[in-house]
Design goal:
The complex is a heterodimer of chains A (112) and B (117). Chain A is mainly beta. In chain A, 0% of the residues lie in helices and 57% in strands. At the A-B interface, strand 4, strand 5, strand 9 and strand 10 of A face strand 5, strand 9 and strand 10 of B.
Chain lengths: 112, 117
């Protein structure tokens, strides 16, 4: 079992719809959770992070964390073609000091 | 505030050669992590340096090494290159704070695309 799992996709949604991206993690000691967006041929850029159970909103993006279910998700409202990218989930866990574990990413396609 | 910079952006090497990649973190960031990204494996953690000390290490062979200087700049070296080392090498910097702190977020540089022929 991978430490951080994401569906590779592609997830296709029509323009204007809500895109829902999911991530599960195996280590209950995980502390913080991050969502990155990566365009083809580019480096990952941070969208947002969350470390408390519940929802956190930032513009069109909402991160949801459920530590009991070891589940974190990212909702993108009013999806735009420019949101088409790979979305990486990262988990920060305590391991000696701490380390970041990345999922393999979900490819999102927003159809115009 | 300037972002993370990496040099060179592109490299072409042949098998058996060695290569050194450089990373300058965001000003004030003391932690530098290195990742290898390939289409099949995703982002794989190589190692992390904090205050000139290697604090964490991933599961890569000893051919992969790194160091960090007093100004937090970091270099990564790969010796005896193999075809499978062809990848995008990403550097990420952060404050390096342990514990529950969402403020300690990693920011990535543009990467170095290494091609081994």
């Amino acid at each position: 079992q991978k430490e951080v799992e994401q569906n590779s996709g592609p997830l296709s949604v029509p323009e204007g719809a809500i895109a829902s991206l999911n991530c599960t993690y195996s280590d209950r000691g995980s502390q913080s959770f991050f969502w990155y967006r990566q365009y083809s041929g580019k480096s990952p850029e941070l969208i947002m992070f969350i470390y408390s159970n519940g929802d956190k909103e930032d513009g069109r993006f909402t991160a949801q964390l459920n530590k009991a279910s070891q589940y974190v998700s990212l909702l993108i409202r009013d999806s735009q073609p420019s949101d088409s990218a790979t979305y990486l989930c990262a988990v920060k866990k305590l391991s000696g000091t701490y380390k970041y574990i990345f999922g393999t990413g979900t490819r999102l396609k927003v159809l115009a | 505030k300037a972002g993370v910079t990496q040099t060179p952006r592109y490299l072409i090497k042949t098998r058996g050669q060695q290569v050194t990649l450089s990373c300058s973190p965001i000003s004030g960031h003391r932690s530098v992590s290195w990742y290898q990204q390939t289409p099949g494996q995703g982002l794989q953690f190589l190692f992390e340096y904090f205050s000139e000390t290697q604090r964490n290490k991933g599961n890569f062979p000893g051919r992969f090494s790194g160091r960090q200087f007093s100004n937090s700049r970091s270099e990564m070296n790969v010796s005896t290159l193999e075809l499978g080392d062809s990848a995008l090498y990403l550097c990420a910097s952060s404050l390096g704070l342990a514990g529950l702190s969402g403020t300690d977020t990693q920011y990535f540089g543009p990467g170095t695309r290494l091609t081994v022929l």
